Amino acid sequence: MPYLVSLYDSRGVEMPLDYPHVRFKEVDGIGMAPVRHLEEQYAQQNGTTYLASYLSKRIIPMRWDVWAKTEAEMWDARDTTLRLISVLEQGFKLRLTLPNGNVRQIDLRYDSGLTMPRDLGQSDLQQIMVAQCVAHNPLWYDPTSVLWAYAVSGGAGEFGFETDGLAFPVGFGGSVAAGVPETKEYDGSWDAYPTITLRGPMTTPILTNHTLDLKLEFVSGYQIDEGETVVIDLAVGSDGRRPLTVTHSVDGNAPAALTNDSDLGTWRIARHPDAVDGNNSISVAFTGGNVNSQAEIRFFPQYVGV
Questions:
Q1: C-alpha dist (Å) from residue 61 to 26, 126, 130, 135
Q2: Cβ(195)–Cβ(235) under 8 Å?
Q3: pTM of this prediction exceeds 0.90
Q4: I need a surface site. Which of 60, 86, 105, 215 has the fewest CB within 10 A?
Q5: Which CATH class is domain 146-303?
Q6: Pick the CATH number of 4-138 from 2.40.30.200, 3.90.1150.10, 3.30.2130.10, 3.40.50.920
Q7: Which of 126, 107, 109, 105 has the alpha carbon at shortest distance from 117?
């Protein structure tokens, strides 16, 4: 097989696919997702007017073979498979580990197709299993998050792929993040919507993606005290929805924290060609900071296919 297939249940526990006599044979639908084009037609117009395009949900069929030593064991294996599918219906993750070392993951649910027929001409010791699964959010992603961090005095650093949850401030000294743009490369083939964490103390923070001319600006004088955080959640969930929330660690939901002209719905890490070669120029500015002040931009790189 050209890649290693792994399944993880809704709790993140890996599901066994290599117990005796099981062979995972095929996964399909892993390339480009279907595209839905929005268009409209006016009276007496020939053709249509293009409006926008969106990715549609993705169907991924999977096939595996089950072998048994006796016919009785085969029926036991069928029971085991049905229990497995009942878990998949609750939602699971399909992970592909590629020969080049890259890892791609997608969130799925069982949809249909596991009819489990018994062909009279087929060996009693073999059962072909086919299941059709659906990804309501059709994007693949790298399950290891990327963390870009910014601290006072304009210092900025890219921690890259985080594996153990540790992060350290960079750019010590001073009390101001000067908002100096720094270009960071994004290799995803689809835009990534991050989760942004601001750690106080800081006053009136502004995060700008200069490549896209998009900003997240807090109202004048807005203060995050030392030991407090504000989280701006722009991330896309497994169902494709985005919460678009601003939450203060003490005050709770803070929808009025951002200025009215902030780009809450569109601020993102852009792919090529919106950001040429994936280069995003990003800056963070605030005042009243110290060694503990930090802005963290965390995201999972997104991909249209494998």
A1: 8, 20, 7, 11
A2: yes
A3: no
A4: 86
A5: mainly beta
A6: 2.40.30.200
A7: 126
